[in-house]
Amino acid sequence: MTTPALTAPNMEDYAATRAEFSWPWARHLLDGLPGGGLNIAHEAVDRHTAGPRRSHVALRCLSRQGGPARDLSYEDLRQLTNRFANVLDGLGVGPGEVVFTLSGRVPELYVAVLGTLKHRSVASPLFSAFGPEPIRQRIARGDGRVLMTTRALYERKVAPIRHELPGLAHVLIVDGALDMLRVDAGDAADDVAAVRARLGDLPEGTRSLGELMAAADRHYRIGPTDPEAMALLHFTSGTTGTPKGAIHVHEAVVAHHLTGRLVLDLHADDVFWCTADPGWVTGTSYGIISPLTLGVTSIVDEGEFDAERWYRTLQEQRVTVWYTAPTAIRMLMKAGPELAAGYDLSHVRVIASVGEPLNPEAVVWGREVLGLPILDNWWQTETGGIMIANYPSMPVRPGSMGRPLPGIEATVVERDEHGTVVLGADGAPVPVPTGTEGEMVLRAGWPSMFRGYLNDDERYAKCFGGGWYLTGDLARVDDDGYFWFIGRGDDVIKSAGHLIGPFEVESVLMEHPAVAEAGVIGVPDPIAGEVVKAFVTLRHGFTASDELRQEILGVARRRLGPAVAPRSIELRDTLPRTRSGKIMRRLLKARELGLPEGDLSTLEDGS
Ligand code: ATP
Ligand code: MG
Fold first, then answer.
1. Which ligand places an atom closest to the C-alpha of 491?
2. Are 76 and 60 in contact, with CB atoms under 8 Å apart?
3. Which of 323, 380, 388, 471 to probe ligand 1 with, by most ligand atoms within 8 A of CB?
4. How many whole angstroms from 488 Cα to the centroid of ligand 1?
5. 21 shares its domain with 109
6. 3-state secondary structure (DSSP) of residue 185
């Protein structure tokens, strides 16, 4: 195991690395296919199996119920993904056709995604808690040819809509698939019969993935893969509207690998845990691909968030690098420092977070309670990989997203009064002076940049100006090049001539000992245009009262000043959030103003 104190970061000097960096250099960290081309699954799996890494644990899978972990070595994974690719061949599925998965975080999901990539088909993992309509919509929009799912999910969610998906030729039922295969033995006939007897008959119109895999060859040669060939289809989180389908290509693996090395600081002996579900881009880029390209052991936990379970997992699995999200951190904070103190987390070397702004208090809490600052980083489904980050070797400024990845040029540009990015005479966006707020843009052309929005070329084209990708997020940069998140362009509040970012207000509210989470919106006001309204949930041990509300309001006024502080605060039991944990401010606003709620496909149950 890598010892925290003895492990030198992969990137010791940010400025020097940045100055020397080139993408061709990053590409040379990977092998490429023997006959030329670049395939994500080759880099993640096959290339490790020629040497001693062959028997290293690639995935350690923890089941929801507990019990012994199922370990898959790199060689196991090679053979299983070969079989999966052969199954697709046998079904007559072609390269470029879309294979959807709909399951919890079971090992077969990881096999299916990587096997699909080997086959040069397109992988699109769906979040298993989606209802039938979001599933139907996504499979229809992506023109899905194959769906891998569980029997229970099929019967409840897919069977009722199957007739509306005429293009969906094959449904593969995953249940028991790995139990049917004695991975190293080759001949799996006995296991297949026994497991089949246990599982009973399958629903009509479906086939057993395990049976197909058992009958498939363990050998497979990846065909020539154009780095620009489509590899992944990811739907965005739907925080600001209807989810968009972002298209990614095999070349993205160059960025997945590089960021795993420089940001997550993965070393060969690390045990890495990314808590995201592959239904969201983080759970694929960093829950599947990135750690495997670095040959480390990755923890796959089927279970949902539970503070004790997570601390126990960190301890028992001796996790060294942990990638999670602000909501999870805030829930751990809510659970109290005493709980954390009961676990040995001394082997954890890096903790990183993504998905939402990480309030400064959470960074400080990490340092005090977990012994490490939490390293915030920023990216989007569209960027395919981490773009702005705090690195283990760089001083952390709590509340800042950090600095751009070597190879990424980021800046902040001007927007006009309608919120449109201002383009100069050369067609490129106009940078604002240091310290000024504006829209964050990235120079187009990094390997994991999305190559399109599914069936929406017009929207894709609108994301670019003069060779820059317009992120839609507002930020400012300080004198040392650290980026500070202000808010999403759509969420920014315009009050009496001020532009107010919800994050600034929410961060201050969350510093109050009673506040667990806060969501801030603008509501119309005849004089100021908009005024700030905050919705707040309380930590354990605090009871909602008018007095407490007034007190929080008073603190916010003192800290933020009357122009920026919330005009009113509403105490709530919960805030509406996406299934990936992001506060849906648009929904807070729609409900507050009695407006249509819009797309709710990614809304968490009970929000
Ligand atoms: P949609 O595009 O459908 O509205 P979404 O933007 O939430 O949903 P994702 O691609 O999953 O979908 O999320 C990317 C967004 O999440 C970023 O544009 C940003 O607003 C927010 N985000 C991600 N990381 C951070 C971070 N470290 N700090 C602040 N915001 C972040
Ligand atoms: Mg977005």
1. 1
2. no
3. 380
4. 8
5. no
6. coil
